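User: Here's a chain of 280 residues. Predict its fold as tokens.
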Amino acid sequence: MPRPGPRNALTDIPGLTVGHATDLHVDTGVTVIRPDGFWTASIDIRGGGPGGRETAALEPENMVGQLHALVFAGGSVFGLGAADAVAAKLSQDQVGLHLKPGAPAIPIVPAAVLHDLANGGDKDWGLEPPYRRLGFEALANAGEEFELGSVGAGRGAMAGVLKGGLGTASLDLGDGLIVAALVVANPIGSVYMPDGQTFWAWPWKWRGVRRPAPANRNGLQRPDAGAVTAGLHGPFASRGEYHAGGGCQHRTAHRCRVQARGDHGPGRHRPGSTTGALAV
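Assistant: Prediction complete.
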């Protein structure tokens, strides 16, 4: 029977680590997801105002389709500097594509950012935004155990008028198959139904969430986390991430699906392989 993984976290996927760096003065932060190799990945971008770096490298029609690290950051366009730091450090460590002897290693480090520039922190950074520094720190902090809530890329996040943040979950489906998600929640709309008390996400919570009144049960939408199945490649990886929502509408701006080791062919799963889903 499906059950949460040992940590109920993204790092239940063997080989994945997560690191945060948080600046309390600026009220922002960076989160880095670091696999232990060059992992297959695909991306699905929604919404009219995306902010990202190297996301086209993960689109199924392009030739790379893999990554060495994934960066989530606050700071809107300024937060993209965090991925520069991660790429520089990985290259120094000889992690990346080696296209010619003697040339620097080329890490593939996609990034997605959220808007937290109006959250009250001190954004008077002049020509030195903090995100490059935070990128180095988050990469150095990567491990299997990590904090949740108002940390890393979730530090300045808002959920409408409420505090947003960073969350994670995993599901062990048995036979060696694990799916997991990490979400930075920064929605512009209300997280409540019209009664002002019931979360839209109540049907997908296992316990402890108040059921809505019958009048408020229409128009439910899936929360922004995603789930995937193993053994998908190229366009199948991207579509697998989309259909994991069960046909429900998603509000996620950036969704990146990462597949762990093994080339099992489209639609096939071998016991012991694992897959993780990342969403922001």
